[in-house]
Amino acid sequence: MTDHQPVHEQVRVQDQTDHGPRRTPGRYQRSPRGTMKCRPVIVAIMPGIPKPVLETGVEYAKAMGSKIVFAHVATDRVSSPSNPDTSHPLDPTAQRISMETAKSAIYSALDAFMSDYPEADWELVYLSGLPDQQLAHLAHTINAGCFVLGTRRPGFRAGVQEWLDGSVAVQLGRRQLRPVIIVPLRGEDWKHPLCS
């Protein structure tokens, strides 16, 4: 190594092993591909979601100068293996509203809510399948900066459902490196939903 090499080159060479670059213990790896500034904020939504979750997502996006991507995952549908842009109901005999009707209702409610934030850039992404997997895949696809999620609905039934399905926030924390912002919700917050 010569004395005229830049310092960063010397450090890079010192961090090499016989098997490639060595990870220094204790080095914190931030969100993938750099800072969160100007990267999309994913706000996970569902029918009946309390408005404080949306408001928190909008505030984070404004602070970071980012676009808001509202993501709804239909858990009663599964993506088609031949065409990922289409999905099919898990139980074709069950009486369910069509995907287009559900997406239209959510979009209309979001459009009314976002009219209070005319400067915000936003879109709705409608997904189907397992929420943690679909949200992680979306984040990777759009290089999102973070996730914003609400806590579960209060009550025994919602608690049992979360225990059976697993917490989406916990699963996201395990599957990828982006920050997961959890908005704490109280019982009265659920009285002011985005849409039912």
UniProtKB/TrEMBL annotation:
Residues 1-33 are annotated as: Disordered. Signal peptide: none annotated. Residues 40-184 form the UspA domain. Residues 1-21 have a biased composition (Basic and acidic residues). InterPro entries: Rossmann-like_a/b/a_fold, UspA. It comes from the Bacteria. This is UspA domain-containing protein. It comes from Cutibacterium acnes (strain DSM 16379 / KPA171202). The lineage of its organism: Bacteria, Bacillati, Actinomycetota, Actinomycetes, Propionibacteriales.
